[in-house]
Amino acid sequence: MNDYVIETKQVTKAYDSFLALDHVDLHVRRGRIYGLIGDNGAGKSTLLKLLAGLCFATEGEIRLFGKYTQKEQMHARRQMGCMIEQPGFFPNMTVEQTLKYYGIQKGVLDRKKADEMMELVGLEKKRKNKCGTLSLGQKQRLGLAIAMLGEPRLLILDEPVNGLDPSGMMELRSVFRRLNEERNITILLSSHILAELQQIATAYGFLAKGRLMEEISASALQEKCSDCIELSVSDPEAYAALFAKTFPKETYHVLAGKQIRISKPQADPEIYSKLAYENRIYIKGMQVIRMSLEDYYMELKERGAKPC
Asked: Over the stretch 57-109, which tens digit does the pLDDT of each residue have?
């Protein structure tokens, strides 16, 4: 049985000569919270729009719940809830009216469903407020509530915590976890707040310039982000050559700014500094650090990682 809720094969989206997406192979397993990471313009929103059926791929194949024909995907998308880019509302309609309106659009006739969704996202006290008066963060919450109408098995969310203060982020993080753990909803979300993603995602995909650089589980990322040592040296190329020869089983990367990063060091820091001293390479600084998700993403870009 195919365990992928979302699977793309060599998906490409071109606008004239511009490649917004370049042969992307994405894999989102059932039950995951998948964090899609990339700079502005990396292709995140374009990919999410393709999955939601808001635009069409230039080439490649998309499978949703294992389905790939146009007719099958129309039925599959009824099991999805989406919030992509800025959610749009009628400014003179109230929060409650908006949820009932979209409930009718989705064929949700249970009048209590609007109340349930407002409570879920923390908007029950704003039910009579007109949408035009809502803050950006409140609009994000309302967009999530609309996406949840119809009991979806899959949520696709583009920057869902945009505009939220820290307490609001914590509340939505708790909502995502409950939806995932209690209702078994698979969630694909993009965010530029990587520290927030790191607290809830169980898998990651890294996009850069329309290409998927890497997919990795949270547990594998945790392993890769273990303690490392960074050295700032006078001659990084010479030190790197010496390090590779002296410690052939260890992993290192040459970073910008004449820095060497040693991943999972197997020796005491003094051993690495001694190697430089004995070969007349000046060490300007040394520190033991633990990589964050932001660090890992930046290093991945600096390495110019090959696409998946």
From this structure: 999 999 999 988 888 888 899 899 999 877 778 999 999 999 999 999 888 87
Structure tokens at 206: 């890294």
Question: Per-residue pLDDT tens for 110-122?
Answer: 878 999 999 999 8
Contact 143, 87 (CB under 8 A): yes
Distance CA 127, CA 229 (A): 52
Contact 253, 299 (CB under 8 A): yes
Q: Are 269 and 225 in contact (CB under 8 A)?
A: no
State the helix-helix crossing angle for 136-148 and 112-121, rounded to 10 degrees: 130
What pLDDT does residue 132 have? 94
Q: What is the pLDDT of residue 2?
A: 65
- Coil, strand or helix at 9: strand
Taking only the tens place, the pLDDT of each residue in 162-188 is 778 888 888 888 899 999 999 999 999
| Identity at 187, one-letter amino acid code | I
Please answer whether residues 154 and 188 qualify as being in contact, where contact means their C-beta atoms are separated by less than 8 angstroms: yes
Alpha-carbon span 138 to 99, nearest angstrom: 14
Distance CA 295, CA 172 (A): 24
Residue with tokens 């700014």: 257
- Distance, first Cα to last Cα, the chain: 23
Residue 227, beta-bridge partner list = 290
Q: Give the burial string for 90-124 (b: 16+ CB within 10 Å, else e).
A: eeeebbbbbbbebbeeeebeeeebbeebbebbebe
Q: Which candidate, 84, 80, 64, 73, places its Cα nearest to that of 152? A: 80
Q: Is 159 helix (H, G, I), strand (E, B) or coil?
A: coil
**Rounded distance between C-alpha atoms, residue 227 and residue 238, angstroms:** 24
